[in-house]
């Protein structure tokens, strides 16, 4: 146990393990909420588990039926309970498939005996946890602790991966039996015969869990083939693992196909015969001619499901880039080999599986993707096209600071285009590969959202009608034209008839029916509606998403550096329930962009000018005139003022003018809404019903609304694991850090007002209720993660971010006295002293005289032009 504890602490600090544990609990909880825990295969595994516990076969099958016949995961399975299922579950094709998979029923038997059929979920949950731990430990060994934490987070967040951790199928143990053997392979380490023996044992155990486990030996065989070609060495370190792993794996697979029908009786299962029969039935082709249509059907069907998980889609896109760019890497070869093997077996199985067959190999896909990020962003950077895991080296988490410093100085600086034209200088705040990453994710986000979401909803009715009014249409003509444009679109054609469309020509413009103070969005959209018709409503949200992405990236860059800025932008784009507003005919994304713009004017780090205060007033007024939920921004600024007042013991602080301006803007907009219908500002909606309705009075009404919001909004939000993770960290961190961190105070205040406003309005709206202040939640989360990552190894040199020109180089000090206790640091440390095995020196190597700190952890070098600097090093 001490050895295990020591290795875990060496891989990640305790705080990071606690964070991953919280994310694991969150992922499991979300999977329990959003997915059924039993599927069609679960009925057979449960029956075999009861048989292992000593029940006769008919009784075991009957017990499985008694528990699962009305389960939600099997309600659409018309073939799950055939005639004489008590006998068929243990013979014929059922036995040929499930009989060799003894691991899950055998390991689950004690838990089923203790807690009933729900005990079938224990082994999958433990297997998923082991996969996370193994992935983190391997990533820490290869690249360091920061990338180990990132690997664990990326593995936990995709909901189409974590869902299999709480399903009574073999995917849960398969996670562990693929990730754990990776620690034994010659990935930048020296291996012994002991590693080989344990690897072969785990391969054998994996084959007893699921036949798809053959993907691991196939992946190792791909790595051996790559190294043989790359290094021109047939006998390399991968040969024993490839030979014995494939020998044992395929030997067990063949034995299972031959021996199982003999043991359990019945017909032998022929996958090729099944494939030919099904392909002939559905595609009128057999054999090789059927591979193309079957493959295309699986790809399109799986993409229709997987596209609802933006995190997984981004992972697959980045994986494609990684395996192409890092074509010399063993991890890339293993990822390709495993993916192709699983895909081939999926084609032979014929049926689309919604990424189920590929889920167990995701730990390997995550490692191959993080390897590319480590090459581009790690403190010890290297060209991806030359990167490999072949040479045994000191684990990255044991590198000394001087070794990292030497690698940074020797590395080729990233390409940064720093334009001098006003309005484009923000491009130079990040290296080129960072903007490329963000741009690719923007394209992925738009591509995924354009076909899977309704772009127009009830709020679009008011916005489009007012846009036509602004263009000069009469109320009657604008109402009729709005109806003609929208009534046949998916949302309105799916049953929203009476609630969405009322009689008369003026009902849209009446005071009580205006959904939001939506004066800004119709005004901005009117020119585009004139050009493109009702599709012009999407122009402003699309532009707002792009602007919001750039703004939040630049803001994070100024506070924490380039790496944190890129992480912030990626998290913002991959938050599905927020990014969806970028392709919706509402003012949500416009309000989000205005909220981010307000951050640049706030006195987060000190007093600001009157000009900044004036700009803040304009921005928050526009936000209040765009969406009613922007009132949360007023609460956010008010909470920041309260925190500053507590710290200074004086309410007259730098936040007071901003709080007064925000409250004044709110009062002005509310007053305007009483006389101008388009600027309706009755924010409280059904607030009076809290008092007038409910059998339990005010408390009962509030409880009913909380229950309704939990049932509707909670289920909707639970499908976005990244959003839930940000909310979880914000809920815990923001109240604790509000007094000393203005960003945390803003997030805390915005969250409180959003929750109160949602309670008073009483209409479940998913993430829309707090979408305006979600950037505050995200930045508060990043402000927690950045200091945590700063404690990880290998440590980069302490070069803090700067927002302007670097300070002038200091004059060299006098030579040290001979009586000084500490010896002077030499001007140039010999290369022998900078090896990875040396301990950290007491002082860092001094930078050149013409260099200073850069915001992304690199060096600034003075140019010949006065007042300007050029970045010559980066991380």
UniProtKB/TrEMBL annotation:
This is Uncharacterized protein. Its main location: membrane. Residues 796-875 are annotated as: Disordered. GO terms for cellular component: plasma membrane. It is a multi-pass membrane protein. Coiled coil: none annotated. The lineage of its organism: Bacteria, Bacillati, Actinomycetota, Actinomycetes, Cryptosporangiales. Residues 797-827 have a biased composition (Pro residues). It comes from the Bacteria. It is found in: Cell membrane.
């Amino acid at each position: 146990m001490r050895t295990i504890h020591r290795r875990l602490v060496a891989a990640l600090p305790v705080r990071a393990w606690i964070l991953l544990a919280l994310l694991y609990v969150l992922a499991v909880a979300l999977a329990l909420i959003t997915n059924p825990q039993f599927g069609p295969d679960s009925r057979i595994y449960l029956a075999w588990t009861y048989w292992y516990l000593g029940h006769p076969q008919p009784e075991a099958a009957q017990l499985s039926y008694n528990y699962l016949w009305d389960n939600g995961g099997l309600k659409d399975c018309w073939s799950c309970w055939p005639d004489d299922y008590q006998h068929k579950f243990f013979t014929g094709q059922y036995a040929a498939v499930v009989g060799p998979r003894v691991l899950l029923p055998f390991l689950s038997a004690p838990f089923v005996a203790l807690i009933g059929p729900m005990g079938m979920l224990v082994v999958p949950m433990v297997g998923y946890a082991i996969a996370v731990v193994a992935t983190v430990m391997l990533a820490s060994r290869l690249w360091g602790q920061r990338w180990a934490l990132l690997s664990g987070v990326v593995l936990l967040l995709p909901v189409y991966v974590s869902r299999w951790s709480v399903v009574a199928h073999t995917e849960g143990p398969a996670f562990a039996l693929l990730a754990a053997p990776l620690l034994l392979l010659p990935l930048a380490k020296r291996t012994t015969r002991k590693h080989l023996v344990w690897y072969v044992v785990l391969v054998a155990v994996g084959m007893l869990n699921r036949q798809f486990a053959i993907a691991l030996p196939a992946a190792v065989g791909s790595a051996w083939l790559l190294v043989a070609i790359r290094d021109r060495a047939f006998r390399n370190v991968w040969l024993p693992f490839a030979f014995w792993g494939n020998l044992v794996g395929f030997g067990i697979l063949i034995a299972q196909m031959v021996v199982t029908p003999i043991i359990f009786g019945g017909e032998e299962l022929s996958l090729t015969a099944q494939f030919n029969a099904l392909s002939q039935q559905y595609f009128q082709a057999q054999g090789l001619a059927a591979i193309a249509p079957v493959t295309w059907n699986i790809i399109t069907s799986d993409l229709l499901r997987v596209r609802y998980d933006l995190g997984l889609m981004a992972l697959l896109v980045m994986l494609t880039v990684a395996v192409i760019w890092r074509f010399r890497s063993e991890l890339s070869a293993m990822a390709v080999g495993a993916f192709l093997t699983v895909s081939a077996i999926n084609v032979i199985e014929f049926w689309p599986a919604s990424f189920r067959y590929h889920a167990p190999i995701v730990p390997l896909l995550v490692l191959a993707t993080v390897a590319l990020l480590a090459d581009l962003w790690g403190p010890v950077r290297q060209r991806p096209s030359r990167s490999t895991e072949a040479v045994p080296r000191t684990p990255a988490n044991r590198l000394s600071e001087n070794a990292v410093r030497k690698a940074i100085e020797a590395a080729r600086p990233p390409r940064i285009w720093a334009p001098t034209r006003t309005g484009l200088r923000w491009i130079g705040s990040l290296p080129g590969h960072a903007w490329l990453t963000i741009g690719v994710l923007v394209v992925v986000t738009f591509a995924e959202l354009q076909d899977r979401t309704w772009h127009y909803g009830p709020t679009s009715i008011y916005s489009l009608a007012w846009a036509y009014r602004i263009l000069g249409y009469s109320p009657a003509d604008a109402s009729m034209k709005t109806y003609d444009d929208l009534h046949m679109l998916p949302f309105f054609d799916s049953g929203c008839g009476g609630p969405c469309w009322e009689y008369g020509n003026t009902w849209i413009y009446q005071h009580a029916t205006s959904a939001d103070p939506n004066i800004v969005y119709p005004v901005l959209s009117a020119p585009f509606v004139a050009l493109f018709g009702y599709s012009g409503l999407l122009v402003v949200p699309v532009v707002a998403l792009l602007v919001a992405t750039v703004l939040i990236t630049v803001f994070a860059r100024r506070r924490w550096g380039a790496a944190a800025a890129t992480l912030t932008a990626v998290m913002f784009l991959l938050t599905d329930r927020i990014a969806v507003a970028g392709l919706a005919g509402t003012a949500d994304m416009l309000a989000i962009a205005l909220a981010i713009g307000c951050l640049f004017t706030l006195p987060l780090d000190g007093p600001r000018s009157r000009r900044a205060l004036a700009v803040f007033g304009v921005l928050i007024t526009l936000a209040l005139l765009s969406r009613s939920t922007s009132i949360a921004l007023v609460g956010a600024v008010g909470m920041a003022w309260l925190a500053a007042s507590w710290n200074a013991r004086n309410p007259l602080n730098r936040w007071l003018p901003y709080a007064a301006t925000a409250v004044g803007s709110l009062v002005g907009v509310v007053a305007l809404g009483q006389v101008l219908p388009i600027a309706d500002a009755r924010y409280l909606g059904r607030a009076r019903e809290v008092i007038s309705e409910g059998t339990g009075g005010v408390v009962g009404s509030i409880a009913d609304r909380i229950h309704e919001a939990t049932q509707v909004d909670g289920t909707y939000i639970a499908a976005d694991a990244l959003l839930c993770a940000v909310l979880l960290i914000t809920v815990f961190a923001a109240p604790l850090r509000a007094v000393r961190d203005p960003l945390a105070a803003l997030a805390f205040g915005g969250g409180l007002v959003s929750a109160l406003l949602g309670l008073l309005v009483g209409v479940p709206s998913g993430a829309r209720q707090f979408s305006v202040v979600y950037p505050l939640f995200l930045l508060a989360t990043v402000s927690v993660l950045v200091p945590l990552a700063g404690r990880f190894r290998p440590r980069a040199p302490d070069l803090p971010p700067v927002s302007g020109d670097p300070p002038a180089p200091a004059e060299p000090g006098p030579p040290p006295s001979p009586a000084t206790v500490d010896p002077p640091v030499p001007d140039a440390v010999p290369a022998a002293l900078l090896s990875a095995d040396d301990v950290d020196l007491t002082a860092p190597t001094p930078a050149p005289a013409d260099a200073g700190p850069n915001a992304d952890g690199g060096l600034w070098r003075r140019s010949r032009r006065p007042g300007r600097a050029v970045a010559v090093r980066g991380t």
